[in-house]
Structures are given as structure tokens and as C-alpha cells.
Amino acid sequence: MTHLDQVLPRGRVLRYPFSERLNHWIAAFSYIYLLLTGLAFWSPWCFWIAAVLGGGQVSRTLHPWVGLIFFLAVMRMYQLWAPQMKAAPVDKEWWRSLEHYIGNEDDKMPPAGRYNAGQKALFWSFFYCAIILLLTGIVLWFPEQIPWNLRWVRYIAVFLHPVAALATIANFLIHIYMSVFAERGAFGSVIRGDVSLEFAKRYHPGWYEEITGGSSKPRK
Amino acid sequence: MSQATLRVQKISGHAGTVPGEDTQRQYTVAKLVDTTTCIGCKACEVACVEWNDMPFSPTTFDNTYQTMPETRWNYWNLITFDEHEKEDGSLMWLMRKNQCMHCAEPGCLAACPSDGAIVQYTNGIVDFQQDKCIGCGYCISGCPFNIPKFNKETKRVYKCTLCTDRVSEGLEPACIKACPTGCLHFGSKEDMLVLANERAKQLKDHYSFPNAGVYDPQGVGGTGVIYVLHDATQPELYGGLPSNPTIPLMVKLWKGPLKWLGNIAMVGGILGLFVHYLRFGPKDRDETPSEGARP
Q1: What residues make up the domain containing B284?
Q2: Domains of chain A (ranges plus CATH)?
Q3: What predicted TM-score, i.e. pTM, was given to this entire model?
């Protein structure tokens, strides 16, 4: 089945429609705020960030609310992308070829669909971390409401919240690196929505086949 | 709070050195609470509320003599009442003055992320600085004694100051001043320990309390409030006083190994990605740079 409506003129192809792009940036900006204020609470060496962002009290007040926005954005991503993030048979092969992926030998990689196995792992990691961060975050939002005999709930929250946050930071660093530095054209795709056919063919051959039916030749 | 003659030795959420650290030596101060001579009159509760100018706090009647179930943001000093059935079937009152213990290694201070919101003075007093408190409540999780209390209106956390303002002027804390039986003492930690051990020995030798002893838990480095208990082997009987309080394990793991691992991973991750770019560059480096870009 082909999706020729995604193929745009002048060798371009639509990768992210407006709704996906908008949601991505809601998640992105809320995440960056959470990251900065979170780092301020994480280490004394970063506490100055809270001062820059309006003071410790402001950061503490807004962090949970922005966290809710981030969580909702991630849930919307789940709604949009979960079917495409399902594990595919090619994914195992992709992980086995990780060495080639790291070495930029993309011609030696198994053909990925709209998302490769690494992107899927990133998505699911963010998804589950968002759930953990929400649950532990609610406890940290209202720690005084937890009765003394349930204090273990607080202990779990103060430990798991930064653990999950660190996992998202690992994801975030890789995500930024891949999209801004490693794969030229990826950053533009989440701003304007389109990539070149060459991009699609190089990084997502399976998806390329799907949208072109294998018939359309890339412009050379 | 008056800090006229007080120097700070520990600061919460603080990067770098502590200004003024070790410039001045002071006695570590301590309160001694002899539970065996407490009559539960609550004069110390009233003195605390009065001296610290606290607003009225409604009491809770739940068929005990205790004023309320636990301390509040505006009620820092609470006598816990427990009816204890002895082995011979007779009853005895266990009354304990509950307040901030002023730990030598305070869990609240370790957990606090806000620079200077919790300080420990060189005399051992642990004091909250509400102007710097961000209201995150991490101190509530760090404390093994259930002491810091959150005020919903001000979004700050409060607790006993050990009457820092009085002590810095050479006065004893308000609760000590009010005690009519002499069960409360205040002085250097050293002196209080001598007095406490003497009293415990007296209870063992001359009264029928073979398990009498001093409560100065080493799990938190010793405390600025020490108790003489009729039965030091069972401190839980006294309103749930923990027998071996420590900073909660999860808080220690979070502020210790996790922090180091996390910092190494974050800095290492950024460096690693940078080195990857130096070594391999962008994925399409061999192509014309405009290929992936818009025409």
C-alpha cells in the first residue's frame, strides 16, 4: 500500500504533519524547563539555574505544573505513534548492527521502517519514564500529605524520580545529538515537516518503500 | 532570627566551602530531657508557643492527654503520652517531650536542595531559614523523627529552632525555662551527657529500672536533645521514638552514589557524543552537504 499523498513536489516527502510537530515542541519546551529546574534541585552546583528562572520558590511551584504538560504531551505521542513504535522483526537485526550505525555505515544497516529500533527504544523509554516521573512527582508535589506510617512512599519517590529523570537525560542527549548533529535534515523535519527522498531512503528504507511503493525514483 | 554570635558549620544545598567554618570553636549545646521526672504538665509546650509567637493551634482530643497527634508547623514542642503496661500488669505513664532532635548529621539538611535554607551552627543547632526555603519538602523525607512541618499558606517548612535567638544571647531555650520539675536541662552536650548518665545510674542502682539509660542515637551522629529513659532498650514505647534512627537509606543513596553516578554519566555522555562527532562526523559526511537540506 502506498501513501503517495505524503510525497511532495521537488523530491520532498512529508514526515511529520503539523499536529505531530506541534506536540513534539510542547513536549520539548516543557522538557527543557523541567530539565533546567530539575538540575537546580539535583545539585547545589546547578542551583543558580533556579535563581535565573525566577527563584527557587517559582521553580518549585511551576516544575510540577510543567511536568503535567510534559506528561500529557508524551501521552499524546503515545496516541500518535504507538502503532508505529511496535517492535518489528528487523529491529533485532538493527541492534546487532549497532556498531555500523555508530560508525555511520548506514548502508550496512538493515532497512528500518518509519522508525528504526533505536528510535523505538527512545520512545518507549521516554514513555515509561514519563509515567514513573508523574507518579513519583505527585508524591513529591505534596510530600506533607503522606502520613508518617506511609513514609516509604516518599523514600521511593525521592529516589526513583531522579533515576527516571537521569534515564530521560540520557535519551535527551542522544536525541539532540542525532537530530541536530548526526542526521542532517532531521531537525528541519520536525520544524517544517518534510525531508528529502534521499533522507527517507538513506535512514528509513522500509518507510521509503511504503510511501513510494518502490516506484518513485529519488531525484538525483 | 538573631545570629549575633553564631557561626555556621554546615549549609544545605551549598556548592563550595562554608564561609566562617572553623573560625570559632563553640560548645555543642544540648537539651537533656529526663522522662522519669516529667509530669506531663505541658508548660514547655505553652512556653514554646508563647516565646515563638505562634498563632493559635486547635488541639485534638482523642481520649489521651496528648495535645495533638504530632507536632505542627506552629507547634514545635509536644509531650507524647503513652500508657504502658508493665510485666507485673501495673500501668505507668510514659511522657516524652518531642521536638526537633538537632542531629549532628541532620537528614533534613542533607536532603535540602536550597542553598542556605537549612544551616547547622557551630554549637550544633540545626535551623531552618524560611526566607531561603523553596517549600519542596525534601527535608520532610530526610528527617527520621517526623519533625519538619509544611505550612500550606506560606509554602515553607518550620520546626523547633532550639530557641536560637535566646541561646545566641546566652539564655536557655524557652521550654527549659518553663519546666517546673527540673526534668529539662540545658548546657553543653558534654555536661548534659554526664548528668544524663549519672541519672541513669541512679535509676538502675536505687530504683527498679534496670534498663534505664540515655538516648543519644549514634545513627545520626548523636543528637542535640538527649533523653533519660526508664527503659532505654525500648525507646519505641515513648511515642514511637526510633531505636536506631538514621537518614533514610533511599535519601542516602540518592544524595550519595546516585548523585555521583548521575553526574559522571551526564558529563561523560556529553563528552562521549562530542568525541563521536569528532571521530565520525555527521552521517552523510561523504555526500554533498545540501543533500538532506531543502532544495
Answers
A1: 249-295
A2: 10-212 (1.20.950.20)
A3: 0.91
B248 touches chain A (CB under 8 A): yes
From residue A194, how far is each of A10, A46, A190, B52 by CA, in Å? Answer: 11, 37, 8, 66
Q: Same structural domain for residues B30 and B125?
A: yes
Q: B15 to chain A nearest CA, in Å?
A: 5
Instruction: Measure the CA–CA gap between B19 and B179, rounded to whole angstroms.
Output: 37
Helices A151-176 & A117-141 angle (0-180, nearest 10): 150
- Pairwise CA distance, residues B222 & B241, whole Å: 14
Residue-wise pLDDT for B224-259, tens only, equals 999 999 999 999 999 999 999 999 999 999 999 999
φ and ψ at residue A62, rounded to 5 degrees = -85, -30
Residue B229 sits in the same domain as residue B140: yes
pLDDT at A208: 87
- Cα distance between residue A159 and residue A126, in whole Å: 18
- pLDDT digit string (tens) for A161-217? 999 999 999 999 999 999 999 988 899 999 999 998 888 888 998 888 888 875 544
H-state helical runs in B52-120: 107-111
The alpha-carbon gap from A145 to the nearest alpha carbon of chain B, in Å, equals 9
- Are B159 and B107 members of one domain? yes
Q: Is residue B2 part of a domain?
A: no
Q: Does A18 touch chain B (CB under 8 A)?
A: no
The answer for residues whose C-beta is within 8 angstroms of residue B131's C-beta and 6 or more apart is none
- Residue B202 included in any domain: yes
Task: Give me the interface pTM, i.e. the ipTM.
Answer: 0.90
Q: pLDDT tens across A57-105, in order?
A: 999 999 999 999 999 999 999 999 999 999 999 999 999 999 999 998 8
Contact A104 B146 (CB under 8 A): no
User: How far apart (Å, rounded) are the C-alpha atoms in residues A119 and A123?
Assistant: 6
B4 to chain A, minimum CA–CA distance in Å?
A: 27
Is residue B158 within 8 angstroms of chain A, CB to CB?
Answer: no
- The pLDDT of B29-57, averaged and rounded, is 95
What are the tens digits of pLDDT across the range A12-41? 889 999 999 999 999 999 999 999 999 999
Nearest CA in chain A to B264: A166
Which residues are CB-contacts of B276 (< 8 A; sequence separation ≥ 6)? A102, A177
